[in-house]
Amino acid sequence: MEYLYAGHLKALLSEAGLRPERSLGQNFLVNVGVVEAIIDAGVDAPTAVDIGAGPGILTLPLSHRYPEVVAVEIDARLAGVLRAVLKGRPNVHVVVDDARSIGWVEVLSGLGVPRPSVFFGNLPYYAAAPIMMRFLESGVSWTQGVFMLQREVADRLLAEPGGKDYGILTLAVRYHAQVRGLRTVSPGSFYPTPEVSSKVVILSPAREKPLVPFAHFMAIVRAGFGQRRKTVRNALRGSPELEVSVQQLDEMLSRAEVDPRARAETLHFDDFVRMAGAFKWDSPEGL
User: What is the fold of 214-278?
Assistant: First the structure.
């Protein structure tokens, strides 16, 4: 396996006249032990995708393990460094694009790489949530995601009902995937050093997706957490997305077997699924 060590990374950036851009969340992972742990956590697949590839810290070792690798980087200048690092490795495809808006199915189909894919990424803190949701909602064929996130974001993905971290992002990701934590990573593992700790999480496709559409599920979730401290009955009643009377709402909650006095933060994933299933979305009054 081949790795990009801290000294080499700094030399490459200096030669290219580049400095890490804080506005793009460029904190590069330079702890080779953590890089190895991330690569080792990946399952076998015909294609690996590196989101936010940067200068190739994950891409380079991935290119030795996977038959095809797609490296996506938003910074065109940094993509030039990436191409230089990967010179002579024809199994790597460099794509300059924004992972918050990229068309995953179209890009991977256009490259002709085999499916399914394992996704990796040291995701920029400011954009981690939209990047993950873009990937999860894209319809792309995938078997696993191994992502480095700001610890606070990772804790939201791993949260259980009743805690302060449990909320909209928790449930949005859980609709599509199972999540487990791999390891916490200290700020000193990065160049430049961020002010917060990070955590690696592993996503696997949900065993069974709910029968209710994602948009309907999320409308109920947003309504429930829109007024987090209110009971679910009052939160849903006050939502601009759900125009429904108190009587109709009580009937819906009864059918969903959800206590109207409960707060959204105490409800489980299945409770939100049942509420979304009990709501009559083709009716102007929801029932």
Answer: Helicase, Ruva Protein; domain 3 (1.10.8)
Indicate where the chain has its CATH 1.10.8.100 domain(s): 214-278
Top CATH class of 6-205 equals alpha beta
- pTM of the predicted structure, to 2 decimals: 0.92
Number of neighbouring beta carbons within 10 Å of residue 258: 22
pLDDT digits (tens, 9 = 90+) for 202-242: 999 999 889 999 999 999 999 999 988 899 999 999 888 88
C-alpha 142/C-alpha 178 separation (Å) is 13
d(CA 104, CA 117): 11
4-39, pLDDT tens digit by residue?
Answer: 888 999 999 999 999 888 888 889 999 999 999 999
> Could you tell me how many helices (H) and strands (E) the chain has, helices first?
12, 9
